[in-house]
Structure formats: C-alpha cells, structure tokens
C-alpha cells in the first residue's frame, strides 16, 4: 500500500485534478445526438438478440437452433447487464431527460434490484473506491483480495469462494446488499434490511419465474431444453461480468487505501485514488462494447457519469496525463489481467509469511535488554 501523499506534491495533485476536470467538462459540453443514437442502437441490438434467442428456443429440438438461440440470448444478457444497464443506472444518460434512459427508473435483466445496486455500487463503491473497510466491493464480503485484510483460516477457501461467486455472480451481487458478513459479526441487525430484503424477494421471484418457469413452459415439450438454454445464458453472463469486473479492480499493482490517508480528500486526491485503484483491459471495439466499456475501468472510475462509449476515445489523453505526472496506467490483455487476479486470489488465501527479522535489529534489542 503506497500512501497517496508520497506520489505527488500538493500543488501537482491539484494541477492534476484541474486537468482531469477540464477533460471531463469538454466531454460534457460535447454530449448530444450521437450519444443518444449510440445507446438506442445498442438497445435495439440487445432486444433483437433477445427476441431471436427466445424464438430459436421453439426450434430447440434442432441442436444448431438451440445453440444459436443460447448464444443470442447470452449476448443479449451481456449487453443488457454491461453496456446498457450498468451505464444507464450510473446516470450517464440522465441529461437526455428520456424516461427510458433514466437512472432512477431503469431496471435490468438480473436478480439484483436496481435500487439496491445504485446504493451499494454508485454511492458506496464509487465514493470509497478501494478504501479498506469502506468499499464493500473489495472481496464482496467473502473474499480476501487485499494483503491488508486480516487473514483467517476461512480464507483458505478463497479460490473456491471466487469460483462459486463467478458462477452465481448475479446472485452474489443481489446478496451483496444484505451485508451478510456484518450481520454475522453483529455489526448490523437483520431488521435494518427489511426494505432491501423485500426488493430482493420481488426481483428474484420475477427473474426466476421468467427464465426458469414462464419461457420454458411457453415452448411446451421443449421446456427442459429451453430451461437449459436460459441457464446457460445466465451462466455465460455471470462468468463474463465477473471476469471483467475483477480484472478492472484486482490485478497486481492495483492499490488500496486506508480511511486515515483519505480523510479531507480534495478533488485532485480523489482522482489520484481512482487512477491507482483501477486497471484497464486492452482489446478491440467489440470487446469494449461487450464489457460495457468497463475494459476502461480507469476512465470509468474517473468519470462514472459520462457515457461509457466515450472512454476509448479519451483513454489516450488520460494515459498521457498519467505519464506526465509519473503515475502508473495499469492495462493489459484479458488473459494477463485474469491470470494476475487468479494468482492474487490464490496467494491471499494463504496466511501471510512472517517478516524476516534483521540480525542487526536482534542484536540491538538484545543489547538494550
């Protein structure tokens, strides 16, 4: 963990912040028709893929049709989750005043209720990014993802917990808002989550009923195949979302911070924390779209309410600013970032190694005694 104060002088930090503020303002001033056309095109594509996928399930007795339908439905769910739902609910299109693009009204195709997610993600995570004991996305309450987290034998299961979280990621995000770890420690009371639980129950029932009851039944005798196709599409979306999100937050060299070093944080220091606490994933245009442009996690943490499809265009400028100030710009292909995350999950499952004792210090202590 490297202190924020060790990176730049106070004057440099504030100048750094002013440059990023100016970059953000240029984007805001340029928002317009092209941004609206882009998100509407993505929405039309997502809906078309869903209709195609659902329709092909009626021909599920023919394996190529079932496979094509499952692929189309998987892509539909990925687009809905990543490039549409996540970004719309961040308020990236609130400026359009379009009710369909309102961050407060949008609901996505996942079991996590939008209202719960907006609090835990938009507010908690993006305000307290990578601050230990404040940002609950560090380990999602079940994983040890930072060396500063106190080790416990429970964490020997880190790789198992991570695998299960990846497979059932939408359910993990849903339960995240219940703060189960704090309930078990007695830090929160079950009664405090009455409204959160009610929203979870309603949304989970609706999603489960849609994917595993209604649509399978509509295909009659093909119901088992349709159920399998829907489950496969959800699994694909879960694994993809987990990979993209973890690769943006937990590769090697992504830093965490203490509450003490972020007290009375200025705008420039907040920007600096976002840079040091994020990582990008390199790739082509289609990869960026399917990732919801969270492959540009650095730019997203800097400007979470700016339309995400703008991130690839401003990334070179953000990187150039970082280079001028001698700051790291953590990026790499998916395989590299994913391998880095996997190694961290495994290494942090093990107890910390005792720090080597200096013979000189030992002699000094012995002499003093």
From TrEMBL:
Residues 350-369 are annotated as: Disordered. Residues 65-331 form the Fatty acid desaturase domain. It comes from the Bacteria. GO terms for biological process: lipid metabolic process. GO terms for molecular function: oxidoreductase activity, acting on paired donors, with oxidation of a pair of donors resulting in the reduction of molecular oxygen to two molecules of water. It holds the Pfam family FA_desaturase. One of its GO terms (cellular component) is membrane. This is Acyl-CoA desaturase.
């Amino acid at each position: 963990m490297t202190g924020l104060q060790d990176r730049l002088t106070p004057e440099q930090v504030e100048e750094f912040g002013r440059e990023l503020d100016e970059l953000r303002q240029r984007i805001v001033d340029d928002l317009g028709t092209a941004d609206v056309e882009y998100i509407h095109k993505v929405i039309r594509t997502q809906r078309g893929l869903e209709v195609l996928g659902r329709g092909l399930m009626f021909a599920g007795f023919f394996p190529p049709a079932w496979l094509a339908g499952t692929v189309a439905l998987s892509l539909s769910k990925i687009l809905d989750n990543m490039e549409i739902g996540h970004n719309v609910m961040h308020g990236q299109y609130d400026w359009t005043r379009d009710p369909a693009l309102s961050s407060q009204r949008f609901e996505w195709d996942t079991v996590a209720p939008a209202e719960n997610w907006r609090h835990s993600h938009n507010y908690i995570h993006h305000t307290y990014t990578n601050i230990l004991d404040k940002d609950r996305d560090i380990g999602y309450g079940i994983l040890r993802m930072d060396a500063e987290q106190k080790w416990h034998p429970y964490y020997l299961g880190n790789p198992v917990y991570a695998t299960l979280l990846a497979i059932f990621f939408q359910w993990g995000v849903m339960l995240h808002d219940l703060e189960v770890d704090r309930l078990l420690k007695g830090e929160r009371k079950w009664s405090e989550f009455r409204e959160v639980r009610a929203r979870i129950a309603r949304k989970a029932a609706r999603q489960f009923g849609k994917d595993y009851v209604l649509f399978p039944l509509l295909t009659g005798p093909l119901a088992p195949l349709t159920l399998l196709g829907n489950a496969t599409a959800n699994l694909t979306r879960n694994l993809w979302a987990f990979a993209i999100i973890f690769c943006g937050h937990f590769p090697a060299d992504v830093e965490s911070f203490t509450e003490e070093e972020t007290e009375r944080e200025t705008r420039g220091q907040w920007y600096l924390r976002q840079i040091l606490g994020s990582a990008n994933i390199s790739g082509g245009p289609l990869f960026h779209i399917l990732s919801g442009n969270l492959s540009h996690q650095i730019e997203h943490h800097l400007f979470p309410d700016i339309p995400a499809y703008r991130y690839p265009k401003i990334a070179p400028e953000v990187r150039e600013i970082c280079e001028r100030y001698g700051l790291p710009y953590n990026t790499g292909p998916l395989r590299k970032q994913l391998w880095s995350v996997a190694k961290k999950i495994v290494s942090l499952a093990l107890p910390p190694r005792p720090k080597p004792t200096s013979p000189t210090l030992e002699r000094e202590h012995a002499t003093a005694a």
